[in-house]
Each structure stands twice: as structure tokens, then as C-alpha cells.
Amino acid sequence: MEILSKVHATNLVKWAKDKPQVLVLSADLTSSTEVDDFQKAYPDRFFSFGLAEANMMSAAGGLAREGFLPFIHTFAVFIYRRAFDQLIDSVAYPNLPVRMVGFLPGIVTPGGITHQAIEDVALLRSVPNMTIVEVADATEIESILTGTENIRGPIYYRMLRGEVSRLFAKDEPFKLNTARILSTGNDITLLSSGICTEEAMRATTILKQRGVAIQHLHISTHKPFDDPSVIQACSEARLGVITMENHTIIGGLGSATAELIATNGLGKSLQRIGLKDTFAHGASKPYLMREYEMDALALVQTVEKMVGHDLDINEIDLQSVRLQAVHSAAKAEAL
Amino acid sequence: MPNSSQTEVPSNWKENASRIANRIRLRVLEHVLTNNGGYMSQACSSAELFAALYTRIVNLAPSEAPMIPAPFKGVPASNNSLYTTGGIYNGPQAAHLDRFIFSPAHYALVLYATLIEVGRMSPEGLKQFNQDGSSVEMIGAEHSPGCEVTNGSLGQSISQAVGIALGRRLKAETGRVVVMMSDGEFNEGQTWEAIASMSHYKLDSMLVYVDVNGQCVDGKLNETMNVEPLQSRLEAFGARVFSVNAHDLEALAAPAELAPDGRPIFVLSYSNPTQGLPLLQNRAPKLHYLRFKDEAERESYLTVYQSMLANMPAAE
Question: The whole model's pTM is what?
Fold first, then answer.
């Protein structure tokens, strides 16, 4: 699989080239949030706010009122934990087009409690006027700014940095509120988001070989969350639905799916993979995904419980899976 | 009370502003008597400041908003095209004009009274105060007349004004951004974050007036959480600071006449929270909100009101 580096950094500079209204606001995490290239390319459109997120959030609201498109860049926790009051009053209530780019979602960082954004989707999903999106790979990072360009209100981006895989075909860009159908099948419907999608893909390949028919949908829009293809997929799941998210299972994708299943009267059981109402601590991503049962093996074990028997899949099987960038199943069928 | 009028404007701006300040106090007292409650001390402390801001300091276009505010048109949302902020009462925006950012939402009653006395709102508008379905809300919201940003969570307006000032600089606009704050807001850490950024970005287009009345909800600000010495604290942050008597119109207006020198200007307007209404001193130290304890207290205020009304020069 293709691995790319600093995808957001490169993409933002390219995307903002002919958009003089695009500004970047940083809170002393300029290279850590991959906006150092933007700063070099467009110094007049870059504003350093120092370690002062509350002021930065409200000032972003002021800049948006003046017709600019400010992109706040910091670690996700500092956006919604430190500046939540400002996010609501200075940005979300007036429905201003402030873009909040939050890095270090869930357990991707060894930074521990202070740096791991494990409840951001839960909090922000409850804020009116918000749009919430999350990237899983290079293709989504490359296309998400264009894919959300016309949204009038505030947007929260759950962003990835550094080395990122390309899971999805380069010519299949992010589409708002549109799931990617990665596999089809009527036994189990699996909804995954962010880094959990790559992890899930390791398992689904082998699960398919073991005869379990899984309809795997990748979710990149947390709000709005009413894509008809997701409702359809949940309704078709013979044995139930699984959600898999790099987030606490309360308030994020798992909860949104529960609401969707109940609201639409689908009557399906739901298994939620994610942080099970616990904080994590500082350690490596693979370690934490295993420790908190958010990895491919956790998915296999959940599927085994649902089908009612052992599928004879071990960690070595899962690690040996070679992933390639995929086209969505919907498009593959159309070809 | 008689309606205000724009027809008789004294040639001396101070005479005019002084008359407006007295009428702001009178109108707020009338409102408090009618409604058995209101933010009275805020009017006492800041009447001259609001009068000076709206008649002398802030360069605004005439309002084109309806004299009687329209009913609330719904919260801002992507599917609500009718929404406007209360900034329309400060006139259409233009590159050369100033912007007025009203911060302490609890002073909304004083702001509404000011809009009436300077001819930007009808006295009937105040009858909608705190009425269901009205935009003339008790704690000013950004859709309330004269407000432009959401300000009820204190300390946020100055930061929003920083964004507005930076944005206007990028657009090469020459108008200033004038912010009115209360001293209690200097308890908030965000206020100091904002001041640091104003100084860092040399936002000398920003002019901040602070009603230093020494009051907060719990009583005296210096006993609740001291903010003094504000002058030296602000100077240490790199601001250009003037401490003035809040009831001296000349002193209030003078700093706004200065040529910019790279520093944001703060005018600390030291006020008497019972100015023009000594009777209110009986309630010290808790002056945040006046609700009459009994009919006798209400009568005592009514007597003062009638005396103030009798001494008020008649408007044309």
C-alpha cells in the first residue's frame, strides 16, 4: 500500500493558492499541525496566536464575520476542551464558517489523557450548526477541503498527520454524508471511521474467506448522519451491526448508529468497538488498540460472538494481510 | 416620559451628550419602576460613557434598522436567511466607519436606552424588553439592537473584536473597532489573552472603553476577585492606557482623538455606580440588579424619578 507523508501540509498550500480568504490560525503547534508550509507560502495569511486557544477561537469568529475563512489548527483536545464556550458562542451560535482542524484523534498519540481526543465527536455532535468530518487516509485528506468548501457554518475536521496510508482510490474523493461501501454482504454490517477503517479492512478480508458476509461501510461524516445507504446497510444486517471507532463508544459513531437504528425502527442488535467508557494512557497506537480492544482482532472476536463459533483467525493472520487502495464496492459493481 | 428627539441638538456636543446621559438614567429608572426590576447601577455608572460613545467617539452611519425592532427571526442557521445581528442599529458598515462592539451583555438595558436617546430606536422598542418572541432580550444577544457579537459569556467580545480588527486590517479598512467592556471581564483569562494578541499584532485600530464601576454580581469586585491595578497591568501588556472620570465627557472623548501609535488604547472609565441616583447607595454593596423589596422602597424611587423628570430639560 502507498504511504504518503505530510499530506495535509501539501494539500492545504495547493488548495488555498487561489483562495485569498483562507487564513490559518495556529496556537504554537505550527509544524505539529502541518501548517509550516502554509506559513512559508502565505505569511500574510498566517496568524500565530500563541498558547491561547480561547482567544484564537473567538478571534476566528471575528475574522469569519469579516468575510474570511479561518482555519484553526491545533490538537483536537485544545479545540473542544479548552475553548468549548468560545466555540459555541463565538462560532457555532452565529453559524460562522470557521474551520477547526483537530489533530491527534483518539489514541493515535502517546501523549496520554491531555493529548488524546477521545470524546470530541460526542461533544461536538451535540452542538447545533456543526458539521463533523473525519479522515482515514491520504485520499480523504486530499479531497476533504474541496468536499466541504460550500458549507456555510462551522466545520470540525478530525485530521491525521505525518505518514498516512492511501486506502481509497485517488480518483474517489471524499463526499459529505456519503459512506464508502468497501464490501457487501448480508450477515453483518460494519460501520467504521478514521483509523479503525484500515484496521477493519485487515479483518474483513479474512472474515470473507471464512464465509462471513460483511457489508463494510466507511464513515467519514459524523454530522450530518443520515445517509440512506447507511440506513439501508443496517436494515440488511441479518446478525446485527458493528461500529468501530477511535473514540469512546458513548456519543460518537456507535451512539449515532444506535440512534439511526432506533429512529428508523430497524430493530438490529449493535456491538460497539471503541474505548469502552474509559480513558486511555500514553503508549503506542498499536499497543493501545490491542490493550483497549479496538483493533482487527477485537473485530474478529466480536464477529465470532455474533456468528456463534470460532473462526480460527489469529494475530499473525491479521498482520500478514496486504492492503491495497480500494474502489468503493458500489463503483466496482457499476463497472 | 417625553420622546427623545433629534431635532434639537445643542451646538456643544458635551451639552448634548450630558442631556442624553441624564435621559438614559431617567429612562432606565422608569423601566425599573414599570417592571419592578432592572440593571439600574449599570445605567448610573455608564450613562455618560454610552452618550459619549454614540454622539462623539464612535463614527457610525445612521441606522437603517426599523425604529421598532422586528420580532425575533430565529437563531442563526444555514436555512435561516432572515437572520441579522443587532449591529444594524449601528448603521450600515463601511470601510471608513468605526465598528462598535458591545461586550457586557448585562448592560443591554443601558444600550437600548441609549439607542432611544440618540434616535436609533423608538421608545416603543423598549416595551418589548424581555417579552417572549422579542429580540430586545434582557441579557443582550447578538440579534438584540446595538449588539453585533454574542457577548453574554464575558471576555469573548474583545477576542471577537481582535478578529474583526485583524480582518479589517487585511482588507485595508481605515475604520476603528471600538469595544465597550465592564471591569469584571478582567477576571477572565481570555481577556488577557486578547490583550496580549492586540499588543502583539499592534492593533492600534482598537479602542477599548471599560466601565470600571468596581461592581460584580457578588458585590465589590475587589473583594470577589481583585483586578487592580488595571492601568499598570494593561501597560505591562503593552497597551496605551488612560484612566479617566467616567462622568467627565471631555476626558472620555479625548483619548479617541489621539493619533495611533502602534498600541491599542484602553480607557479605564472610573465610575460611581450610583451616579445621579444616590438613593441606590442604600443597597450597596450589592448593586448588580435592582428589585424593590417592598412598596415603600418602590415609592422612594418613584419620588426620585418624578424629581429627575421635573428637572429634565424638555425636548422639542
Answer: 0.94
Tell if the CB–CB gap between A55 and B165 is shorter than 8 Å: no
The CATH code belonging to domain A180-329 is 3.40.50.920
Q: Which fold has domain A3-103+136-165?
A: Rossmann fold (3.40.50)
| Residue A257 identity (one-letter amino acid) | T
> How many domains would you assign to chain B?
1
Structural domain including B130 reads 13-70+82-311
Judging contacts by C-beta atoms under 8 Å, the chain B residues touching residue A62 are 149, 159-167
Find the CATH number of the domain harbouring B178.
3.40.50.970
- Which residues on chain A place their C-beta less than 8 Å from a C-beta of chain B? 44, 47, 49-50, 52, 54-68, 70, 85-86, 89-90, 93-95, 128-129, 151-153
Side-chain-side CA neighbours of residue A60 (13 Å):
39
Q: How far is A72 from chain B (nearest CA, A)?
A: 12
Among A91, A92, A97, A89, which Cα is nearest to A71's? A97
Cα–Cα distance for residue pair B178/B155, rounded to 1 Å: 15
ipTM, two decimals, is: 0.93
Residues in chain B within 8 Å Cβ distance of A67:
167, 171
Say whether B168 and A68 touch across the interface (CB within 8 A). Answer: no
Considering CB atoms only, which of B153, B164, B190 is closest to A62? B164
Tell me the pLDDT of chain A (335 aa) as tens digits. 899 999 999 999 999 999 999 999 999 999 999 999 999 999 999 999 999 999 999 999 999 999 999 999 999 999 999 999 999 999 999 999 999 999 999 999 999 999 999 999 999 999 999 999 999 999 999 999 999 999 999 999 999 999 999 999 999 999 999 999 999 999 999 999 999 999 999 999 999 999 999 999 999 999 999 999 999 999 999 999 999 999 999 999 999 999 999 999 999 999 999 999 999 999 999 999 999 999 999 999 999 999 999 999 998 889 888 788 887 765 443 33
The distance from CA B42 to its chain's CA centroid, rounded to whole angstroms, is 9
- The partner residue sitting opposite A90, judged by closest CB among B150, B197, B201, is B150
Rounded Cα distance, A208 and B182, in Å: 66
CA A69 from centre of chain? 22
